[in-house]
Design brief:
The complex is a heterodimer of chains A (about 500) and B (about 400). Chain A contains 17 helices and 13 strands. The relative contact order of chain A is 0.13. By secondary structure, chain A is α/β, with parallel strands linked by helices. The longest helix of chain A has about 30 residues, at about 90-120. Chain B is elongated and about 100 Å long. The chains are: A alpha/beta (about 500), B alpha+beta (about 400).
Chain lengths: ~500, ~400
């Protein structure tokens, strides 16, 4: 659909046939909640069955277990130990390596392919017709103006550090606005002391998304194509080049819609803190290898082109779920995940460069972590069920399915090790399998190398991190369980804001 | 077997029961899937394509001019960094070749232990490639790592070849081609190639017990193939490095800022003097020094310091007249040589800070500032003399500015 170039309408036409069609499309794609839980469970069960069938075939065709290999007795000084030279036959190893390469190639090409497909059909351009009339030819030559918007709900402890982080930027924002949402502490005064503007929400009970909608409806009203909005949390400190690099990216690529942060965890809180920091480090390393292809435009800090936000507001209720005219969908549990899906569905290009990092608060207790992850997980699944299976969401469905399958895979390998351990007569070393395990450990350690010796130590001993992985899987299982039983989801503890 | 028959909970026979073997295979297949996914997280992906570029390539959708980048893209990679990427690439290539060759050997043979060892070495090399590119390892350390790894690999293969079949010498030949192509760029590593080719010829001669020229022909072919690959490489990967070196040798333009180098200023300075003599004007030299560039480099990285230098050079270029020469005298000092008296110096020294002040770059909380020193003389003076006077003036100005700040 080509935009009407001569006279773009000031408001979306009320009787636009596309509107009704889009609604029906959304209705059709909406999977009911029970169905969603069952869908994931069925997919996982199907995968388990097919892998089991492959396993049986492998055992038959390679006659595994027919000839147990001899066990050598090795004397090292006064000690005696047993070593087994057992390892798979060469052909099996070749098949396994080919399988590995196949899985990797499939994963990469699926995503690169869908991104290419999406860039062919940028729905966002057709939405330009809904925007106000502007002299775009002149405006697009200017470098972007950056407006920072910080939603804050009782953040007097962390807000000063956040604002000082902005002052230390290599390129300063042109305007900073703190959105004080139902704050009962000194948030407003602190913001004023730092000389930034304050926007106070009026009777907002829709959490962060509601506060941002109120503020953005005012802020976006005078924004043009060369405006960028940096939405960031009040407990987040940006890396010093964030604004400079993100603004430069928006200047250089006119189609770039958003630049997201790579978050890392703040120091402190001992082992539970280190678990989360390691998790974030690996996530960041993965984004690096993917050349900035970002999964979620994190709520901790993301710079949007103002036009992209206007497009989202215009497309809500037509192409994407939500209420027309609102930037954020207030029904979503994780509004940053939801806005990422919204932008992707509209064909928006997004990136997360190496220089754009931020440091954000981590969960201090297991209880808080449980609640936070419960919300992320539940939010991700619910958002997906709203958007349905499309080219832009297929990788996210794959991710959820991967987590579900991971539950089976990790726990069965743990069971395998436990059964082996309690059945052997004596401790036997298997050099081949030790080498395979060492590869795991090396990979896990390299990916957190930047985190310092604590991160490396936690990663080298492996077992605590496996326990942490099991904890995260428990969150997923609980979440599926809740969805299936149609329990209502809670936002989480007050003041906690969203990350993916 | 003499070990004690006393398992902890389940009988040892559990481990050989059919269901357990299927279960083990199940875990194995899962592990392969997991490793494949992990691999997809580690291998470098292709750069994200600009949607407009994709549409243009595939001929889909109308071309729009707005999608053309307004600001010309400047490569942020310095030659030193690209050198590190070369080494990482070299490790990646070598690791890939070793992995592929050893897989082929393992498939043809019956899975010799040394083949799996070689596969392991290939994987280790791939890992090293990742580490170098991720940690931004210093070039010197990376090149040493490369030299040692290649030498160790050559020794391992030579030992293996002297015990195993003749076909294993093929390893050495293929490695010689790859290593040759990569190493020739760094003169100190030519020895690695010579070493590989030498051991290839030597081992071939020793294993067939006769000196057979048939071993030497492939070695020469390998050397030629290596040289050909080198030519291809130089045209693509290290083009930046070559441009940099060439420009510096010619001594005219500073690659980073586009200003003249010191050598360029000294070479072109007399032309300004001659022009001044003809029109009987005086010659002035102005030195513009960036305040606290070292702290910018320290706090925000060398890349940011480079951006500052570029910005300041651009600002001076905008402020100066077309006939003025702009050069980079030293690390953070720019020199402008031009014709004119006090009034033109005054106008210029007011314009430069104003234009710099308009740029969005800062040094954190303090704005970006420059100190300016000037000198005027008759056209008979040598440019270097005027520059010395201007530097003295600069030190005086910077000194008094420091006093004001501390006061």
């Amino acid at each position: 659909m080509e935009p009407d170039k001569e006279s773009p309408p000031l408001d979306p036409p009320k009787n636009d046939p596309r509107r009704g069609e889009g609604r029906r499309e959304i209705e059709r794609l909406r999977v009911d909640r029970v169905g969603l839980g069952q869908l994931v469970v069925m997919l996982v069960a199907g995968m388990v069955l097919s892998v089991a069938a492959i396993s049986v075939a492998v055992v038959r065709s390679f006659a595994l277990g027919a000839n147990p290999s001899p066990i050598l007795t090795v004397h090292i000084g006064p000690w005696t130990t047993y070593v087994s030279e057992q390892m798979p036959v060469a052909a099996l190893v070749i098949v396994a390596l080919a399988g590995m390469a196949g899985v990797a190639a499939a994963a990469v090409s699926l995503e690169v392919g869908t991104t290419l497909l999406l860039s062919l059909n940028p729905r966002r351009r057709s939405l330009a017709a809904y925007r106000r009339v502007r002299d775009e030819s002149q405006a697009s030559l200017e470098p972007v103006r950056v407006t920072v918007v910080i939603p804050a709900h009782n953040e007097e402890d962390t807000l000063p550090a956040t604002l000082e982080g902005l002052e230390n930027q290599t390129r300063r924002p042109d305007r900073t606005i703190v959105v004080a949402d139902n704050s009962t502490d000194r948030t407003v005064e602190i913001a004023r002391e730092h000389g930034v503007e304050v926007f106070e929400t009026v009777s907002n009970w829709k959490k962060k998304a509601g506060a941002l909608n109120q503020a953005l409806s005012v802020i976006l009203s005078d924004k043009g194509p060369s405006d960028a909005i940096l939405l960031m949390d009040a407990d987040t400190v940006l890396s010093p080049r964030f604004i400079e690099v993100a603004a430069c990216g928006l200047d250089e690529d006119p189609e770039l819609a958003a630049v997201g942060a790579r978050f890392s965890g703040a120091e402190g809180h001992g082992m539970i803190g280190q678990f989360q920091r390691n998790e974030f480090l690996r996530y960041s390393a993965q984004i690096s290898a993917r050349r900035g292809r970002v999964f979620v435009l994190t709520g901790t800090a993301t710079m949007f082109r103002a036009d992209a936000l206007l497009d989202i507001a215009a497309a809500r209720g037509v192409y994407i779920p939500g209420q027309s005219g609102q930037v954020y969908d207030t029904a979503a549990l994780t509004e940053d995940n939801e806005i990422t899906l919204a932008l992707k569905s509209l064909g928006g290009e997004m990136i997360s460069p190496d220089e754009c990092g931020d440091v954000t608060e981590i969960m201090p207790t297991w209880r808080a972590l449980w609640v936070q992850r419960q919300r992320w997980q539940r939010g991700a699944l619910e958002n997906l069920s709203q958007y349905g299976v499309t080219a832009s969401t297929v990788r996210y469905w794959g991710q959820q399915f991967g987590i579900g399958y991971g539950v089976v895979a990790l726990n069965s390998s743990i069971a395998f090790m436990v059964i082996t351990a309690i059945s052997v007569d004596a401790w036997i070393w298997f050099p081949f399998w030790m080498a395979v395990t060492a590869m795991f450990v090396i990979e896990r350690t390299i990916t957190v190398w930047h985190g310092g010796w604590r991160a490396r130590l936690l990663s080298v001993v492996l077992i605590p991190e496996i326990c942490y992985a099991v904890f995260l899987q428990a969150v997923f299982v609980k979440c599926l369980f809740d969805i299936t039983l149609q329990r209502t989801a809670k936002w989480g503890h007050a003041g906690e804001v969203s990350k993916p | 077997m003499t070990y004690i028959v006393a398992s902890i909970l389940l009988p040892q026979s559990t481990l050989t029961s059919p269901w357990f073997i299927v279960f083990a295979a199940f875990v194995g297949v899962n592990t392969i899937i997991y490793m494949g996914l992990t691999l997809s997280k580690l291998i470098p992906w292709p750069r994200q394509a600009q949607p407009q570029r994709v549409r243009t390539l595939l001929g889909v959708g109308a071309r729009d001019d707005a999608a053309e980048p307004i600001v010309p893209r400047v490569s942020r990679e310095t030659p030193a960094e690209s050198g590190v990427h070369d080494i990482a690439g070299a490790f990646g290539w070598l690791g890939g070749v070793v992995l592929l060759l050893s897989s082929v050997f393992a498939f043809l043979g019956r899975g010799n232990l040394s083949d799996f060892l070689a596969m392991g070495i290939g994987l280790v090399f791939l890992t090293i490639a990742q580490v170098i590119s991720r940690t931004k390892m210093p070039t010197r350390r990376a090149t040493w790592l490369w030299a040692l790894s290649v030498s160790a690999l050559a020794v391992a293969i030579a030992l293996n070849a002297s015990q195993g079949g003749l076909e294993r010498l093929g390893y050495l030949l293929v490695l010689a081609v790859v290593v040759g192509a990569v190493s020739f760029t760094w003169p100190s590593f030519v020895f690695a190639t010579v070493f590989l080719l030498g051991s290839y010829v030597g081992l071939g001669a020793r294993m067939t017990s006769v000196f057979n020229p048939a071993w030497i022909a492939p070695a020469i072919a390998a050397a030629i193939a290596g040289a050909l690959l080198l030519v291809v490489r130089r045209r693509s990967l290290s083009i930046l490095k070559d441009v940099d070196r060439l420009e510096n040798q010619l001594g005219s333009t500073d690659v980073l800022t586009g200003a003249l180098t010191r050598q360029g200023l000294i070479t072109l300075g007399p032309s300004v003097r001659r022009a001044a003599q003809r029109t009987s004007q005086s010659v002035f030299v102005m030195i513009v020094d960036i305040d606290d560039l070292a702290s910018a480099n320290r706090n925000y990285g060398m890349g940011y310091g480079d951006d500052l230098l570029r910005t300041v050079a651009e600002a001076i270029r905008t402020a100066a007249r077309d006939a003025d020469l702009l050069g980079r005298w030293s690390g953070d000092e720019f020199a402008v040589i031009g014709m004119g008296a006090e009034d033109s110096i005054k106008a210029l020294s007011e314009r430069i800070p104003r234009i710099i002040g308009e740029s969005p770059l800062t040094l954190g909380k303090t704005p970006l500032r420059v100190n300016i020193g000037t000198a005027i003389g008759s056209p008979e003076n040598h440019v270097e003399v005027l520059v010395e006077q201007a530097l003295d003036d600069l030190r005086r100005v910077a000194g008094s500015a420091g006093e004001v700040e501390t006061a």
